[in-house]
Amino acid sequence: MKVLIVSDTHRSNANYFKVVEMHKPDMVVHCGDVEGSEYALSEAAGCPVHMVSGNNDFFSSLPKEIEIEIGKYKCFVTHGHHYHVSMGAEMLADEARHRGVDIAMYGHTHKPEVRHEDGVIVVNPGSLSYPRQEGRRPSYIIMEIDRFEDVHFTIAYL
Q: Which CATH number fits domain 2-157: 3.60.21.10, 3.60.10.10, 3.40.50.261, 2.20.25.90?
């Protein structure tokens, strides 16, 4: 199974459309700041799409966080601003552990990362539209679950 994890597209969707076409994922997870593009992003994916609202999704009816199952993994998806992720993902990881999830996915910082935090995998795809990490290349994550049900994450760049 191939899952495309994205965030912070901020209504600049051209890179999202490119990435969906390149990878043809089985599922998309968007960690917020879609800014009214919910329908366009869902239609372009051609697969199930899970989205949460971000701090710039002012009038959105998207939930602020969700829990979903991907394969055998329980995942917690949030934009992250309610967990002060700009100061670090420790509070988010604590919440994920409290909820008993395996993977916490978030956005907001526009900086990609995959790290293990005391039994929780913390994942941020960065931003496809306004990257802030060194080099400032648009980023996303491909999550793959292999035939043994092991999960693998790849930070990818355009």
A: 3.60.21.10
